[in-house]
């Protein structure tokens, strides 16, 4: 699941692999005889598949599949083979298990812009290795949009935003303080909200209203980077970020009000935000969609079936 230790505050949401967004690949007829090799038992279901069908996402967005129940290590190669990735142009990638309920598929390098992608998770009759069997399939289709990237320098107090390789703007920022440093590394945008209520008590920083680290704020133009609570946003406590003010955050990246609104309008789910110069180290790969914080060799160690080239769409 998308969980972790929080920094600035706020929660996240996930996209359910149910309803109209997940299309069953087949329904057994009432007269069908049960297979003797597939004993009856509780079903294996998918809780979520991200991205949602019909969306346009950024070049660092993984396909993330979350199961409702644990998948045993002995069953993962078979499960991976039943989750087919098809693309409009060949893409080399692989599955990687984040624990026993989440499997992500990411390209070796970023997705090429304009790629059409389909994930067919045909779980019908597939075992999770723990006595559960899939009962139907799921299909999601999405598109890779413009290559929008943000590169944040903690020490330089800047964020450079590029689109399809061209610099669009360089913004002034403040990142985390020495006490609450920002995560380093590449984090794909999880989602964004026009307003988020953030409190220091809810994230374990301070519940004491007299503490200098206490806050209870609703802040605008919030771009969500980690499930633990890292955002790029405007903060009323740091209205003019940059090297001149040098005010540290509780782990978020602060922009001015006008810059935060502009940046909010530029980015989408899956766009990579890469932060350098922080002493905290890279965000764990499963803290949101920080999949590219693992090198390719590291990524393959978490795959049961190894590197593959996507099927032609």
Describe this structure in words.
There is one protein chain. The protein has helices spanning 76-81, 257-266, 296-301; strands spanning 43-44, 46-50, 56-57, 63-67, 83-87, 92-98, 102-107, 116-122, 133-134, 137-144, 148-153, 158-163, 166-172, 185-188, 191-199, 216-224, 231-234, 253-255, 272-276, 308-309, 311-312. It is mostly beta strands and 313 residues long. The longest helix is centred in the C-terminal third of the chain and has 10 residues, at 257-266. Mean pLDDT is 87; it is low at 1-7 and 9-36.
Features:
single chain; 313 residues; five-stranded antiparallel sheet; five-stranded mixed sheet; 3 helices; globular
**Alpha carbon gap, first and last residue:** 29 Å
The secondary structure category is mainly beta
Count the E strands: 21
Number of helical regions: 3
Element string (H = helix, E = strand): EEEEHEEEEEEEEEEEEEEHEHEE
Q: Which strands sit side by side, in order, in the main sheet?
A: 2-4-7-6-20
Overall, the morphology is: globular
Model regions low in confidence, pLDDT < 50 over at least 5 residues:
1-7, 9-36
Largest sheet: 5 strands, antiparallel
Helix content: under 10%
Overall average pLDDT: 87
* Beta-strand percentage range: 25-35%
CA radius of gyration: 21 Å
Write the layout of secondary structure elements.
Elements lengths: L42 E2 L1 E5 L5 E2 L5 E5 L8 H6 L1 E5 L4 E7 L3 E6 L8 E7 L10 E2 L2 E8 L3 E6 L4 E6 L2 E7 L12 E4 L2 E9 L16 E9 L6 E4 L18 E3 L1 H10 L5 E5 L19 H6 L6 E2 L1 E2 L1
């Amino acid at each position: 699941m998308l969980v972790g230790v929080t920094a600035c505050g706020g929660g996240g949401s996930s996209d359910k692999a149910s309803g109209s967004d997940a299309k069953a690949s087949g329904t057994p007829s009432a007269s069908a005889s049960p297979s003797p090799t597939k004993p009856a038992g509780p079903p294996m279901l998918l809780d979520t598949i991200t991205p949602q069908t019909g969306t346009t996402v950024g070049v660092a967005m993984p396909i993330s599949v979350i199961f409702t129940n644990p998948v045993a290590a002995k069953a993962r190669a078979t499960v991976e083979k039943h989750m087919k990735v098809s693309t409009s142009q060949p893409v080399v990638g692989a599955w990687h298990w984040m624990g026993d309920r989440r499997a992500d598929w990411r390209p070796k390098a970023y997705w090429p812009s304009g790629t059409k992608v389909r994930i067919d998770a045909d779980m019908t009759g597939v075992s999770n290795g723990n006595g559960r069997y899939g009962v139907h399939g799921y299909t999601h289709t999405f598109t890779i949009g413009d290559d929008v990237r943000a590169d944040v320098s903690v020490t330089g107090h800047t964020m450079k935003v590029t689109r399809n390789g061209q610099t669009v703007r360089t913004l002034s920022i403040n990142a985390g303080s020495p006490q609450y440093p920002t995560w380093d590394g590449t984090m794909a945008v999880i989602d964004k909200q026009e307003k988020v209520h953030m409190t220091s008590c809810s994230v374990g920083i301070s519940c004491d209203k007299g503490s200098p680290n206490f806050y209870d704020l609703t802040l605008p133009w919030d771009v969500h980077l980690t499930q633990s609570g890292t955002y790029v946003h405007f903060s009323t406590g740091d209205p003019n970020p940059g090297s001149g003010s040098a005010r540290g955050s509780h782990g978020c990246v602060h922009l001015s009000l006008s810059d935060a609104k502009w940046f909010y309008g530029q980015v989408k789910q899956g766009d990579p935000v890469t932060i350098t110069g922080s002493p905290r180290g890279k965000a764990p790969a499963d803290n949101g969609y920080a999949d590219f914080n693992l090198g390719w060799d590291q990524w393959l160690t978490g795959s049961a079936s190894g590197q593959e080239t996507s099927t032609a769409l």
